[in-house]
Amino acid sequence: xxxxxxxxxxxxxxxxxxxxxxxxxxxxxxxxxxxxxxxxxxxxxxxxxxxxxxxxxxxxxxxxxxxxxxxxxxxxxxxxxxxxxxxxxxxxxxxxxxxxxxxxxxxxxxxxxxxxxxxxxxxxxxxxxxxxxxxxxxxxxxxxxxxxxxxxxxxxxxxxxxxxxxxxxxxxxxxxxxxxxxxxxxxxxxxxxxxxxxxxxxxxxxxxxxxxxxxxxxxxxxxxxxxxxxxxxxxxxxxxxxxxxxxxxxxxxxxxxxxxxxxxxxxxxxxxxxxxxxxxxxxxxxxxxxxxxx
Length: 294
Ligand code: C2E
Ligand code: MG
Ligand code: MG
Ligand code: MG
What we know:
- It is a single chain.
- By secondary structure, the protein is of the alpha/beta class.
- The chain is 52% helix and 18% strand.
- It has helices at residues 2-34, 74-84, 87-107, 122-125, 129-140, 153-158, 161-173, 189-192, 204-207, 214-229, 242-250, 267-285, and strands spanning 40-49, 54-66, 70-72, 115-118, 147-152, 177-182, 199-202, 233-236, 255-256, 265-266.
- It has an eight-stranded mixed barrel, surrounded by four helices.
- The chain is globular and about 70 Å long.
- It starts with a helix and ends in a 9-residue tail after the last helix.
- 33% of the residues are buried.
């Protein structure tokens, strides 16, 4: 009977495994056509400057809606696109959308400090990312300052000289460089100091329980003060409640991003969202207790 059970379990696992493989293969082939078929769109999430209590910049995040697969998370398809090289084309498309959105908002009178795009390590391997972004910016008549580059800490740890070279070139060109998801990898601050960075983004996992987890409070506070002593500014990701915000303000965190302020919204919704968020922040500054989303 134990044998029978084992066999069933084995069948169960192999079925689960092949379903997983199947899903991956389907995603991969669907991904190849997604750009041509116009299935991607971008959303933008405001990032708040905690000193002025105003929207300072935004992060551009990709969305994929497939007619049969439905909504596919970037956490699922970006790694696949990195493996098969499609990330290069997707990444360029993202950069173009971000520049275009920034320009559009500018024409409507909204001056953002920048729009941040997420860049994968794979995009550095080809070596001409910097030039490609410059061309896109030139088409829109924008300064390099308009596009901020986010790279995950995990990637920064892998490659050293190569990374420093590419990041330096981007920074020299005028882009702000952010380290995304900071704190989940194992990089040290002394290592960070060797890199040409501007902003450290504390990973959401440290922010989630900030209100009642003493360890997370210590870690966040340490990241903020170390970053400041190295001349970097700090963004907290995933801020969802006023208690988290209060602690971050107390620690002199520079920027915050999260559902407390706004979820990511489409390009057309963005201007109204910024107005609405700034309104709420103004009331918060004047002491109104209710910052939660309406
Ligand atoms: P990320 O760069 O760390 O982006 C932040 C993620 O946190 C986004 O998820 C955002 O929607 C989510 N988020 C923001 N505020 C909150 C909050 O208060 N609570 C919670 N629970 N989540 C919040 P999203 O859009 O699903 O993206 C996931 C990841 O996929 C991104 O993490 C990034 O690594 C990657 N990604 C997204 N768009 C792109 C892209 O255009 N290119 C590349 N290479 N990667 C991308
Ligand atoms: Mg990011
Ligand atoms: Mg992040
Ligand atoms: Mg992340």
